[in-house]
From TrEMBL:
Compositional bias segments (type: Basic and acidic residues): 1-12
Family statement drawn from the similarity comment of this UniProt entry: Belongs to the pirin family.
Organism (species): Nonomuraea mesophila
Pirin N-terminal domain boundaries: 56-149
Stated name of the protein: Pirin family protein
Length: 321
């Protein structure tokens, strides 16, 4: 999915304030299992455009925090009756992770891929040095998330690739069941290609369960549907490193993302992840001149033009201030 903002701004993470702290949360050793304390990262509404524009809630990147592990972009949308029509657009330096709760989306890319994604399936696109793609869905109920994973320096110029995984492995425990989308959770590993230590999972909660976590990771929890204690629809709850488990109580579905804190500074602008202003400017120039990103065949419409770069130079920034 694209960032369709016509004037995408440079994201400068502020220190932010924690919106709330759960007084029943774990102590300073971090070994507790509740969802708090932690930061509640509010999203902002972003329209995706088109005649029947779909609005998404973007919680990463944001004012309080830029990344969770290598996860650098989280858009949640639906449930709503909507039509998705995202024309061909470029990406660099990242992976796109498409995950649906309801509906279906058709993916096309410059590698020649034509692939639907449906609930419980994973579409994973590795941009590397450069790829372009489009996404479409009919006017119908649609509910899901689109996520980006920043590629580390040693892999960000890798060749572009696409993977479709129709069935994901599952970790089961008392009160929960987790489909492992990316990385590893509780010893269960996703078949999807990952370039940094991370985790992504859809957790179905039915009662009370304690989900194992990697204590070296920072994590984020996003309520997809239902009712789960300490979570509400919209915001993303951030959990710092040091937790070996998280307790989830209620009935609903929760997206879990996490990973080792990303140690590199990056520049995120429009649909590019790079390391400097000049690099981003070069990517934009190549896209506008029709070079470096291939051609998406079969989409009925013109590619997206890149917005104008801001007047001030883009600066590499870390995951949080």
């Amino acid at each position: 999915m694209s960032n369709l903002e016509r004037e995408p701004r440079e994201i400068r993470c502020g220190a932010g304030r924690t919106a709330s702290t759960n007084p029943d949360g774990p102590g300073p050793d971090g070994a507790g299992s509740d969802t708090g304390p932690g930061e509640v990262l509010a999203g902002r509404e972003v329209p995706l455009g088109g005649p029947r524009a779909m609005t998404v809630s973007r919680t990463l990147p944001g004012r309080q925090r830029r990344m969770i592990g290598a996860w650098c972009f989280v858009d949640a949308y639906g449930p709503q009756r909507a039509e998705m029509r995202v024309p061909p657009h470029p990406h660099t330096g990242l992976q796109t992770v498409s995950w649906l709760v309801a509906g279906e989306v058709l993916h096309r890319d410059s590698l020649g891929t034509l692939q639907h994604v449906r609930p419980g399936q994973l579409n994973l696109m590795t941009a590397g040095r450069g790829i372009s793609h489009s996404e479409e869905s009919p006017l119908a109920p649609l509910h899901g998330v689109q996520l980006w994973v920043a590629l580390p320096g040693g892999h960000r110029h890798t060749g572009p690739a696409f993977e479709h995984h129709p069935v994901m492995p599952v970790l089961r425990g008392p009160g929960f069941e987790a489909g492992v989308i990316m990385g590893t959770l509780g010893g269960v590993r996703s078949p999807a290609t990952a370039f940094t230590p991370l985790v992504g999972a859809e957790i179905t909660v039915d009662g009370t369960g304690e989900v194992p976590l990697d204590a070296g990771f920072e994590h984020g929890l996003l309520l997809l549907d239902g009712a789960v204690e300490h979570l509400e629809r919209g915001p993303l709850r951030y959990l710092p490193p040091g937790r070996s488990r998280v307790r989830l109580s209620g009935r609903g579905r929760v997206l879990l993302i996490g990973g080792e804190p990303f140690g590199e500074e990056i520049v995120m602008w429009w649909n590019f992840v790079g390391r400097s202003h000049d690099e981003i400017a070069a990517y934009r120039k190549e896209w506008m001149e029709g070079e470096g990103f291939g051609v998406v065949e079969g989409f009925d419409g013109a590619p997206l033009p890149a917005p104008v770069l801001p007047a001030t130079r883009l600066k590499p920034r870390g995951r949080a201030r």
